[in-house]
Design a protein that fits this description.
The structure is a homodimer of 335-residue chains. Chain A is α/β, with parallel strands linked by helices and 335 residues long. Chain A folds into 2 domains: 3-119 and 308-325, 2-Layer Sandwich (Nucleotidyltransferase, domain 5), CATH 3.30.420.40; 131-304, ATPase, nucleotide binding domain (Nucleotidyltransferase, domain 5). Chain A has 10 helices and 12 strands. Chain A has a 5-stranded mixed beta sheet. In chain A, strands 10-9-8-11-12 form a 5-stranded mixed beta sheet, sandwiched between helices. Chain A is globular, with a radius of gyration of 20 Å. The two termini of chain A are 32 Å apart. The relative contact order of chain A is 0.15.
Amino acid sequence: MSQFLAGVDLGGTSIKAALANGTGEIFVSDSVPTESHAGPVAVIERIAALVRRLISQGGNIGSLAGIGVGIPGLVDVSTGTTQFLPNMPTQWRNVPVAALLRERLGCPVWLLNDVRTATLGELRYGHGKASPRLTMAFFSIGTGIGGGVAIDGQLRLGPLGAAGELGHQTILPDGPRCGCGNRGCLEALASGPAIIGEGVRLLRNGLAPRLHELVDGNADRVTPREMLIAANAGDELVREALIQAATYIGIAAANVVTILHPELIVLGGGVAELGDILITPVRRVIQDRVGMFPTDHVRVESSQLGDRAGLAGAIALAQENIAISGVSGSHTRSN
Amino acid sequence: MSQFLAGVDLGGTSIKAALANGTGEIFVSDSVPTESHAGPVAVIERIAALVRRLISQGGNIGSLAGIGVGIPGLVDVSTGTTQFLPNMPTQWRNVPVAALLRERLGCPVWLLNDVRTATLGELRYGHGKASPRLTMAFFSIGTGIGGGVAIDGQLRLGPLGAAGELGHQTILPDGPRCGCGNRGCLEALASGPAIIGEGVRLLRNGLAPRLHELVDGNADRVTPREMLIAANAGDELVREALIQAATYIGIAAANVVTILHPELIVLGGGVAELGDILITPVRRVIQDRVGMFPTDHVRVESSQLGDRAGLAGAIALAQENIAISGVSGSHTRSN
């Protein structure tokens, strides 16, 4: 009987899941609300129910060989246990998600931080598909700024799976407080909320007339996308705010270049959908700040998979662990 | 007949060289002034003469299997050609040092940036000796700040051998101009000259009475070491200047932790000999800035090899290339 894989992308608001064949081709996927307030066990039941439903939809597809799960926070990849999930209720600390899912679905389960999972997706099925030895840094810019790093085609996890937190580089040592407790992290300067905060400030000070029209003067309706529309309609200070955020991302990217000299820097996450207004300054800042080093081969691109990177990476996570472990344990993989 | 290896550490003021057996044990070493003003070919003759002299001193030691050379700047590791040597005269650009040395000494020659070479030395013969899979970042703090990164026991070079330039991370985006053209690089804030500049400022403003006594009021005699003595004798502002430099190094180290999560950060180079007054703040800044991530296992230590790291690394460079290439080409190795 043939085997297939499942990938799960656990988010604060929705659970996405997909089934794929052994080569990673997704043949069915769906999502349900997370309802994280109900607690970890209830959410794990929801994940299991979603996977079971996809399997029943799939017809006679063989046996489930393994599941990769992207988790919004830090996880102990060796034990499949959550550590710190900043956007989930506190009872999510130290939950043995891999073991609980394995009990319910009867196959090995591997966990990984959600942005490292998306990085793996981009590496195996997006920009890195044709480059098995790619060195790449992935910035996921949304409510927070997450990241992931692949070196010579291998995702870098570090001893506890915490490598790749590109959003917590210090960009301004005395800058605004970040959710992590540090000051001046990239996340505190260029995440969606940081960008919106600057838009709202301009709105309230009467410095963004086009934005004011667009959102009817309602600060709650300011988004990075509305800000881009306002900038394109003539709000120069709104444009500058977007470029300033991109400049901070560029500094973080330039720092990654000095340390790793990757061939590719990928901007993903919802905010990255703004496109050129972010990418162009990032490219310029890299040239300005580390152009004395050979950087011509360092490309900066938008994510190729967009919001599909997480599920693609969860499938890849299962694939790679099965290849490593021969489908034995529910907790392998470290690098 | 047995084989041996040579290592060369080319600096702006001196050339060091050593011979070692196949296991990397150095049995003879010496140094001569570089006299870089005489031009690349003359310097290459001096290197060759030094190696020949060491060989003649070594007695009947077999045949020279290969030479590793640490170069103060950027080199194209695949061709063995210099690219940009900031502290050498301009005619050092695009010099095929490997080929010129091979002509003279009749064996394969491999080049590598000097601090990456020292990193390799620390990795194979210093802190990393018993840890074949060590992930480590090496800061060399002297006239400039160089660096190197090893991942899972392998030195990271990047496509052009330029990875690991830890001194050119941006720490203060609007900070002082760096020699590289960028603003606010770590090198512009915490290198020997940057630290001395702060000491001289305090001296001239009458804010460093102990330092004034120590150097007889002569700004030219201010060094990081004199500053440490003055700080220990009671010059509080001099102490603060040293701790401020260490704090900048700590921010750069914390950034490396977010990206790579290494097990070890090594401080080397002349300024690192100041010891605890640098290391303690670096450890504290890592805890303060990225302590929400698991960092208990990230150690910060002084270089174990000190100024011998460069030669040890040059020997290791020859060893590893011979292992990879079977002593064929004069230009291999990329990762």
